[in-house]
Protein 1
Amino acid sequence: MNRILIPMLLALGLSGVRAHRVNKHKPWIESSYHGVITENTDVVLLDPPLVALDKDAPVPYAGEICGFHVQGLSAPFEAVVLNRTSGEGRLRARGLIDCERQREFTFIIQAHDCGTGPEGHAEKRSHKAVVRVQVGDVNEFSPVFAQLEYHGSVTEGKVYDSIVQVQASDQDCSPQYSQICNYQITSQDAAFAIDRNGNIRNTESLSFDKMSHYKIRVTALDCGQKRAARDAVVHIHVKPVCKPGWQGWSKLVDYEPGTGSKLLFPKMHLETCAGSVSWIRTTVELETSGAGRGCDRQSYSERSLQKLCGASSGSTDLLPAPSGVFNWTATLVTDGGLDSDLTYRFDGRQAAKIPDWVVLQNLTHQFTITTWMKHGPSPGQRAEKETLLCNSDKTEMNRHHYSLYVHNCRLVFLLRTDYTQTDSFRPAEFHWKLEQICDKEWHYYVISVDFPVVSLYVDGVTYDPYLVTDDWPIHSSQIDVQLTVGACWQGGEVSKAKFTQYFRGSLSGLTVRAGKMESQKIISCLQACKEGLDITSLENLGQRIKVTRTYPPNFIKTLYKI
């Protein structure tokens, strides 16, 4: 019997010794972790996730994770085990975290296994890992102004880049919520504006007589768009200054033709600012800003106006009022006015074909083109040719026989001669560069042709071309031509025939007349206004008054000298 028990006891003893030696390995975790926690919450998001591994797995206790140990008395965090077998854990705050008190925490964490079981053998701990937790901000504070009232002053008549600067701050911890991203004026006052730095400026010159004190309200917004709890009040004081010169007059005076005399400046006076004046020189210019002929000329038709000024007969109106016979302008956009003052607005998509019976097929050596035009540069668009008037092949080819167009704020007139007239190099393009072409104002243009001389008159003043380009004549053909307004006709391919080089602007009174040139006197009369200045009560101004009148085409000047 003894021989039997001894081996059994030995076997039991050996088995017991082997069970106490299975916890051979330490748990393993990452060497560092980065965490994010939003303030006023307790959940920490770790990258990488908190997981401890043990090579003793799947042995019970020795291969299981029993806990995580956070080292650092100032770290308000704890780690809990979610699954002992997988080693998954979670880091959480022991209380609510306040970003404004501390924005980042750094501490040490270790994992330990469950040891060798109930016998109480010591567990093994992992290496120490560094954990950095950043606190995410919540936009809980509103901007606050450093002052509730600000004061600034301006001198009337001046525009300032900055009159006064307001400043606000925010107690949130992050740049997103603590920075002031914008200031806004909450009161309805279009005379002032504020930039992102809180600088208040005036958008127009201020008048002391109109208002001497402005009271505006301003709010601030942080980068999370949270507004200030209280607006700041800004007082702007306008300081008067004495301005020498004529006071109480307006640049714009409304006048209806035929209504008789009208006082231009009933409240005008000369402010000398207590100084002495030895002489005064004043120039008054009257100009019409109306469309087309404007002033008294709007009561005449184009044909009547030419008769009034003594112009030769035979002019053809290419932009008449739409009717049963003159129907090619029916699809064009008009800006209103009487038939005698009708203007057409071209937006780069409209053009009209002139019927063959209206005007000669092709003008050659002597003819005149007149028109009122208002044109300005088109922002954001390519500098393309903009055709007012074009005479081109109706079919088969795309030759331009003559055309008037604008290109890069230059006026260009093209005139191609036929081989039947000459077979040598001849002038073909005439260029003018004038400010009037793109100033968005109405001007009267006359192209007078006595080939090879081409003259341009703008508001009655003649201008020589700065560039004349020569070219060979066009080969003669039996192809009919097409006269168009507002674009040029491309008839080279029947299936693709279309308009091109559209005009962008307004036209009125566009006429073509074959024959001799008009004199400059007649051209000036065609666009000059009848209205003028009537100087009265000169006896009240003393004996040393000298008045000189001059009569340029579109205005009258008056000179006073003491």
Protein 2
Amino acid sequence: MFFSENVPEEGADPQQSLGRQFPGRAPTMREGGRGNSGSSSYRCSLAVLLVSFLFPRTCGRDASRPNILLIMADDLGYGDLGCFGNDTIRTPNIDQLAKEGVKLTQHIAAASLCTPSRAAFLTGRYPIRSGMAATTERRVIARAGGTGGLPTNETTFAKLLQKQGYATGLIGKWHQGLNCESRNDHCHHPLNHGFDYFYGNPYTLVNECHSNKNPELTSKFQPSYSFYAQIIALLVFTLLLGKFFGLFSVKWKLMTFITLCGILFLNSQYIQYLFLKCWNCVMLRNHIITEQPIKLEHAAPRILKEALTFIQRNKQGPFLLFVSFLHVHTPCYTTEMFRGTSSHGLYGDNIEEMDWMIGKILAAIDKEGLRNSTFTYFASDNGGILEARDGNVQLGGWNGIYKGGKGMGGWEGGIRVPGIVRWPGFVPVNMVIDEPTSLMDIYPTVAYLAGASVPQDRVTDGKNQLALLQGATQHSEHEFMFHYCGTHLHGVRWHQKESGALWKAHYVTPNFTPEGAGACYGTRMCPCSGESVTHHNPPVLYDLSRDPSEANPLSPSSEPLFNTIVSQIERAVEEHRKTLTPVPNQLDLPSNQWDPWLQPCCGIFPFCWCDRESSNDDH
């Protein structure tokens, strides 16, 4: 490398020394994706100053209290959108959104799985701070009926904006828990976290919600179910023999027989297959179950209708609307209108349907005259899943050039997601920002826009990135970002703002199965710890600014500053760990296990069937 001769002098400050090694690195903001020049940055800054002069924050709701529209896809791969390099899946509405705003190319999720990533998004804090990170491999809310969930003492951005007079709504997926002590206490419900209105799935989309899929939550337990069924059958047979030969009292035989039949009933595969579809596949409107199980063929139009109705109902503003799509989580579901229309099977159909829905939502914003007074944000909660396959056909997303995918704590494919921000008149158009940003940044950014203050009694990890979005500064507020897999720290990135260097150290990496396959096909998802991971000391180091695919690990022989870089990162890890305090873990047992007394049910448990929506459908 061209800087290999410049080794820092003994006693010199490592960061300053490193900063001198990269005088020729390109700036990290580009206009229209064509590179950058001093003149374009200068014009951008002048534009921002002019806008600020014409529209000061103290005058007019457009500048100081915009509507907030947050749109989140589920498991969308970084490379699945046209504006992020895909030329075979059609996403014209999302592509247009990017042209009308800022595209974030280093947008990082705080976790590579739904529940912890969304907890961080809602609170602006690493999930380990709120207890939304697991010590075991059960890393998400595992059932709709369980005690774990986003703690009520956490302050979401919805709570902050609600206090500022915003109408707040969540349409779609929640996956942050539901109940604590009873079936109807709703302690983790969105309405208990600052949302005035909720319509959607309190859990997530799983196989049993799909009419022709086997329940994925029971598949791993099928061998044990078979074993238990054989044991119970043997006991029943023994009981019947005892009755035939008169070896047991009548009362004992009757009680034993009833008990064994009950155990056989509750543990049989038949009952699991029959009821899981109803227990986990639920749609709510506020606290009321409207549909159990979900009819996926109606889910997309209903979610769209609810989003459009919320906008129309609250068009006088200000409002916060979080549209949290069930798309494109596998198993994908798609309405008949989009089925078979893409060149990438059901997954491509799913993306194109989601893009159409986003187009309808943005058209409603325009129709109500809210375009210039609405801060719009689009992202995915984590990267695309690689292990979801049908034979040799991948069913999940494409993460572009980035290694790994969903469930992998440190590799870019699981945590780097597409990000777009549009706010006409206040954010430049057709701009590309290559600086590190985080999903957690939305928290302090929208709080600032609404005139709210972030809580001062806790650590907030997200950064207010408005100045970066507007071009008033060239550098992100982030210096170090920490990549967790559950509670296990797998990696750290160090962004040297002035030099443009972007280092990433992996302390733990998953063992791909089969070896070299690029994913954990043998386990469906890569583990965080145990024998299925490799610990690295010293860590595996990459220069992401030159090697974004993480293909060429550095070493002391190939990188003279290797030890200095690693030492700087390790000091940051030590300081970060000092800010962590013990909290009750929401994703470990017993919090994260199914409890029949907490199971949402619109009938007499376990017979949870209802449909309060069909009569209102407008097809």
Protein 3
Amino acid sequence: MTPVCYHTFCRKCVVSYTETRPEAISAKSLLCPFCRKMTKVANSNRPVEEWAQEVKPSFLIQGLLDSFAPCSQGTNNCNFCDEDGETTPANAWCVECNVSLCDGCLKAHRSIPATRHHDVSDLSRDVKVKTRRKPMCKEHPDQRMQFYCKDCKKLQCQSCCILYHRKCEPIVSLESVLPEMQNTLQTVQQKLEAYLATSNTRLAKKEAKCTEINENKSSLQSQVRSGTQAAIDLIKKKERQLLEQIDDVTEKQIGQLKGDMKREEMARQMIRQHSELLGRALESESDVDICEMYLWSESKEAATVCVPESGMEDVSGGKACFIHDRHLMCEKLNDLHLGVIDIIVEDAFDSPSTAVLYDTVDIQAEDDEKKPNAFDVAVFVVDNTDTIVVTDRENKCVKSFYKRNKKSCQSKLEVQSAPLRIANLNNNKMAVTLPNTKKIIIVEVKPELVLQSSISTRQRHVGLTSLTPTTLAAGSLDPPCVDILDMAGNGLRTLDPVTDGGRLVSDRSFLSTTRQGNILVFGSGYGAGRVLCLTPHGDVVFRYRPKQLNPFPRGITETNTEHILVIDRRAKCVIQLSASGTFVREVLTSRDGITSPHGLYLSESQHLYVIDDDCLKIYRFTRNN
């Protein structure tokens, strides 16, 4: 099938893609998977899977289909003989007449002056039959479309020229314009081939990148294993040291005990001998023996015959033990820093690149009472899925758009007054300003939006950015200044730089935090609009004044390499500045489809989200070779 954009797809592919886009279903239209243009269907009451049946192939595709038909339909038998009711094998094919011929009809065909010089192919040999489709008029099926109307840019038969094109001036024969058409087609073909060559180069680079990523994966895995093995080796070494220490302590204790046991055994033997001598003296009843043994027992020698007391004490002494705190060990192992896996994303803005419209998101919610008027956008990664969040001033709500089970979903958080700016606090929390009620709300992105808390402030803060995990920088309109707030809304200090007799920036609607911890402010000011870079204490790092004398500021952010992107709505462009605040280039202009930019966000994947009128456009960037 061929939609209105003339991109050709099979019906199944277009229907499958349309079913995943709620905006196409609600618009009762088929969505082109390539350019996302919508093709209205006449009978939208039918099931979606039947919508594609109403879209017919283009004239070109149908022509290609028809060009294959003659070879498969009528080359077996002679067409003229078939009309006479006879079945005669065909031996030739006339490209001009688009008919198959037997030998007899071929002779007659060649004898007629009008067909004598027609291009005829021999079917008896193994050759390819050339077919040339003759465009026949649908309204007048018996007439060929031999004329081309340059006013209407249509092929016409003679009757259609007389009936419908009498007022058209440049009606020429098809043969006269065919060379010009062929030249145009050759030029287009060359452009397409050049595009294919460029596409092949890009694909080759992407394939090489895939190979590089896989090789890097193996290298990273090897490094992780090496680091882990180093930690294991260190643990094994400590294990060996402890085991050796146990062996040393044990051998020392056992050696000491064995020495004490030997000395005690020798003492026991000596005591046993003296005990036996005393027993014999008593048994002999000899006065001399009894007297000698008595004198010995009273001597100093007898007093030394005893078991060593030191040996007795050692037997009851301490033993070696292993002091081990399992809980402390687990904590240490949990804190063991083997390394961190991080993704180094090349900054698309670090070198010349081309913007490509990647996707368009309809920010109209199902139950919106008014047309959306989005002011800011942010993207959160929740459960490995990008969740887009926008503030809608007109419907007084914050919206999130995400996919779940491959289906598009949305969430809506209604608030007290028109929400304006978003500040990312962490992976799934954000702060949103409600200036009309002097509040800042904290919202959790699950990806459904859940209100966590509300902070009351003294001023009507519009611009907002997260300065540190515990502080916010908020831009106030009256008085015009930047307030540093804690998470309870208390003012820590006020930044109000003044120069040349006037405030540098009087509209503090758009703030952003740099990687250096400074504050970017984009707004109108004394004499002209400008971008300011301020330290958290109010010192001016740099100032940039756009080319436009009265720019219309509508958003500011920073890239991975500290370049700065700002929106000038009046000039309908996104401008890139260097880290020092000098002009680099225009990243997006009206040539890229930007009509009324109003808020932007650069994701970690280098996709630029831009609010444009009542929709959100997502751009990706390809490096220029």
